[in-house]
Amino acid sequence: MVRMRRRWALALLAGGASAAAINAEYFSRRTPAPRPSDVSVRQPPPTLAEENLLPGEPWWPKEGLPTTDDDHRQIQGYVNKTSILPGDSLDFHVAVNPAGRFRITIHRLGWYGGAGARTVYTSPELEGVPQEVPAADAADGMIACRWPRSWGLDVPSDWPSGVYQAVFTSAAGWRACTPFIVRDDQRRSDLCVVLPVTTWQAYNQWPKDRRQGKSLYNGYSADGRTDPELRAARVSFDRPYANEGIPSRFLEDQHAIQFLERSGYDISYATSFDLHSGRIDPTRHRGIVFCGHDEYWSTEMRGAAERAVAGGTSVAYFGANSIYWRILVDAADDGRPERTITCTKVAPTDLSAVTDETTCRWRDRGEPEQAFLGVQYNGVVDGRKSLVVRAADHWFWAGTGVAEGDRIPSLVGGEADGRSRGLKPLRDVRATILSASPYRTSQGRPQIQSSHIYETANGAIVFAAGTLRWTTALNSPTWRNERIERATRNLLDRIVEPTVPPAQPTTPATPASSPATPTVGTV
Length: 523
Description:
The protein is an alpha+beta fold. The protein has a domain at 2-184: Sandwich (Immunoglobulin-like). It is 18% helix and 25% strand. The chain has helices at 2-14, 19-28, 36-40, 48-51, 197-203, 250-262, 272-277, 299-310, 370-373, 470-475, 482-496, and strands at 75-79, 83-84, 89-96, 100-109, 117-122, 126-128, 151-154, 162-170, 175-182, 191-195, 219-220, 226-227, 234-236, 267-271, 287-290, 296-298, 314-317, 325-330, 340-342, 376-380, 385-388, 407-412, 415-418, 429-433, 437-440, 446-449, 452-456, 461-464. It has a 7-stranded mixed β-sheet, sandwiched between helices. Strands 2, 4, 5, 6, 8 and 9 form a 6-stranded mixed β-sheet that branches. It has a 4-stranded mixed β-sheet with strand order 13-19-18-16. Helix 1 packs antiparallel against helix 2 (19-28).
């Protein structure tokens, strides 16, 4: 596969070959499906350090084959599970338009010397046919595909826990993808990295064709414009992600994955649903890392995170706008668990009207996210702003060389969190505001972004980055920042190997400069 992809790239750069011609060699090489012996003999997976020494290649090269679009849906697909254990089976549901041959390559994302991924499997040659976009449910707007199974894979026992991408490539030269996570429910890794699959699906507008697609944000009006009044109240995982299949803001997750594996941390991977269902056992980990934009949370998810901290397991949020919408997690109509999420986004008229079925902002239920995170969402940032350092003498900033008031450029962007006045302060913790960064929202309102950390009496740490650009500073070739890398390693090292006993808890007051509780909406 390495030599094959290089030949594809060279041919494309030379401009002398069509996608179909480039694919000819790809389809001349047949790879058998996994034999039963591949999974019946339980080979232990390599350590992540060993795994990342293996040769890698980009899973989605920019100079590669053309990508699918939702107007033509040349090739698209989805899997029947968001996460899976080695040895279990995974089904792929793929549509090809027009009908023709295709293959599926599977890639594990990591560091791999900077390549970012390793190709772990190639399917046999398969036959695909077009599939319809089902009509949206009249009651809740949900679009759920019931495409037939195209191929199944028994996940080999030696595949390490990680984020995997299945790439669908047609003989005509089109490609699309879909992610899944291989987890490890038994190993006591230092850190469990949770992928925000519920937020991925909330933003998924498939099909993004200006006609049929729906997400928890928008539907389409008769003239093809997005209209929040026509949004779905329920969305299904039984459908592709829009266009080429890469979820919304997936690059932020990818930056976190590469940073963590490049840094050599002992990690395993899971999903929002694994947190919801209890498959994540916090006692097996020193810390749980929420690596990207993690906005949509069920009661079970939030309860699991709060219990983890109460039991001494730390949590770190590398994004912003976390734990914002409360959702319900349900089975598909045929009973398969964890295939839909519901969020009506209708606030109760008063707290007495809140029920177990109320799906709105957590703060509208009287349970603001700041009560757990220490900060909460306060706006969409107009452009990119500098993060302004506070508490420069805190251990979080040790070795970074920052001084009070230093500005770290372009770190505050996308969405931001801050301290909201009028809320009950955190109790029995040592809390510290690590930044106070002025910005204006996309609606022109002045706000203050704050990164925040607190330590509990039992040694747990809760960190909230308060910006969607944190992981970009950890790994992006353009925006990587050594000070943020060092500070993040300080945090993770402290979580993994506490060097001092927990500090005597105190309860600092909310700064007078903090703006009032915001009313600006989320995107």
